[in-house]
Design a protein that fits this description.
Order of helices and strands: HEEEHEHEHEEEHHH
Distance between the termini: 23 Å
Helix content: 25-40%
Number of helices: 7
Largest sheet: 6 strands, mixed
Structural class: alpha/beta
Number of strands: 8
Shape: globular
């Protein structure tokens, strides 16, 4: 979970993030418009599902009206809208973006104007629009919550120092982050 003031008031979190994820913009692979910097999204419709954090780099574009904010109820709908040409970009963290692009149309009979949609149908921006620290939440009613949080922090420190954390990431998650 992300670390927020509200969550800190409701849960016990370790001091160190379990994982840091990078959010990017996803575009159709064959999109004509070349987006090199955040300023290039001006005039675009960007999809970010309802309830998801709007990356601070993107928020000013929505507030000023320079870009349009598309807010469906689920991430899969953002990718379906991208494929249908109803939105120009999807804001998502790398792991969720790649995996959602892969599964957004599973079980669908409809192919649409561009044929099959999948992981190869999209590309991610070269720049991050937000990096997010993810934490383990521990129930505030657990009698050993602080001890658990401290043990998690110590375990994370150990596996980060000896390189095991990177090895775990490489083995289990890197393929999702790299598309």
């Amino acid at each position: 979970w992300t670390d927020t003031e509200e969550r800190r008031g409701q849960f016990t979190l370790g001091q160190e993030p379990l994982f840091i994820t990078s959010s990017r913009l996803f575009f159709l692979s064959d999109a004509v418009r070349n987006v090199q910097t955040i300023d290039d999204i001006s005039g675009m419709r960007v999809c970010n599902p309802l309830g998801y954090t709007v990356p601070p780099m993107i928020r000013p574009f929505f507030e000023s009206g320079a870009s349009m904010h598309d807010e469906p109820s689920r991430m899969e709908l953002c990718f379906r809208r991208l494929w249908a040409g109803r939105t120009d970009a999807v804001s998502a963290n790398l792991n969720q973006g790649w995996s959602t692009a892969e599964i957004a149309f599973q079980g669908w009979d409809h192919m649409g104007p561009k044929g099959d949609f999948g992981r190869g149908s999209v590309r991610a921006s070269d720049f991050s629009v937000m990096d997010t620290n993810l934490h383990v939440l521990i129930s505030p009613t657990h009698p050993r919550r602080r001890e658990i949080a401290d043990a998690l922090d110590e375990g994370l420190r150990i596996i980060q120092e000896d390189g095991e954390a990177e090895a775990i990431y490489d083995r289990l998650l890197r393929s999702f982050a790299e598309g």
